[in-house]
Amino acid sequence: MVTLALLHTSPVHVPVFDALRDEDHPGLALRHLVHEGLLDRARQEGPEAVADQLGAVLERAVADGAGAVLCTCSTIGGVAEARAAALGVPVLRVDRPMAAAAVTAGPAVTVLATVASTLAPTVALLAEEAERAARPVDVRTVVVDGAWERFAAGDQDGYVSLIAAAVERAAADGADVVVLAQASMADAAARCAVRVPVLASPRRGLRAAAVLCGRADS
After folding, report:
1. Is there a contact between 177 and 109 (Cβ–Cβ < 8 Å)?
2. Best CA proximity match to 208, nearest among 69, 85, 78
3. Which of 3, 12, 23, 33 is deepest in the core (most CB within 10 A)?
4. Mind spelling out the 3-state secondary structure of the chain?
5. Rounded (5°) CA angle 19-181-59
6. Angle, CA 84 vertex, CA 13 and CA 116 arms, to 5°
7. Which strands sit side by side in the sheet containing 177-180, from one edge to the other?
8. How far apart are CA 94 and CA 123, in angstroms?
9. pTM
């Protein structure tokens, strides 16, 4: 059985992805790797600043038996994917399947994030997927004020509430689709009463990674 390594920059993602695995891909072998310092440094110095450190983490994961890697951090996901050729195993950023879905939903895409460092990588990914799909996109970005501070303080309910309010504002402002740029934002999708798609990355990302692991039920 192929083991999927999940690279997280917060421990809060571990139970989320375990629950998704149990619901959608029972029996899929997961190994969680939590490295909070990667995001801290990437926020301060830019994602490329962690390339060597991230590469070492991924090399250890492969040496320990990982047959594929899913990076659940949107800020460093592109840097992780770029290491795939050197590692010899598939590496997927969790938000790529979400981005592919977003560009098919309509040209007016609003990206919500709670840390500014996520915006540039997410916008670049949307542009890449739009080019791949030959679809035009007009991307607007919003940092949800005060949300990250709630997250850092362990106030998940307050965090989700602020994001949900931002989703409703984006929908009212004419977005065709709202993208929740970080995996930690996913719970806000269920708290919104809007008519436009609100896309989160965890379930789509895990599904795509399970396919990379050869799971026919995925």
Report:
1. yes
2. 69
3. 33
4. CCEEEEEECCCCHHHHHHHHHHHHCCCCEEEEEECHHHHHHHHHHCHHHHHHHHHHHHHHHHHCCEEEEEECCCCCHHHHHCCHHHHCCCEEECCHHHHHHHHHHCCEEEEEECCHHHHHHHHHHHHHHHHHHCCCCEEEEEECCCHHHHHHCCCHHHHHHHHHHHHHHHHHCCCCEEEECCHHHHHHHHHCCCCCCEECCHHHHHHHHHHHCCCCCC
5. 70
6. 45
7. 138-143, 108-113, 177-180, 198-199
8. 14
9. 0.93
What does the pLDDT read at residue 17?
A: 97
Find all residues with CB under 8 Å of 9, minimum gap 6, and list them: 34, 35, 36, 38, 39, 72, 73, 75, 76
134 contacts: CB under 8 Å, gap ≥ 6 = none
Cβ 210 vs Cβ 1: under 8 Å: no
Q: What is the pLDDT of residue 200?
A: 97
Residues found in the chain: 218
Q: Is the pLDDT of residue 28 over 90?
A: yes
Please report the sign of the dihedral spanned by the C-alpha atoms of residue 17, residue 202, residue 156, residue 51. Answer: positive
CB neighbour burial string for 57-78, b if at least 16 within 10 angstroms, e if fewer: bbeebbeeebbbbbbbbbbbbb
pLDDT for 214 equals 83
215: pLDDT strictly greater than 90: no
Residue 202 pLDDT exceeds 70 = yes
188 token code pair = 């806000």
Structure confidence by residue, pLDDT tens digits, 57-68: 999 999 999 999
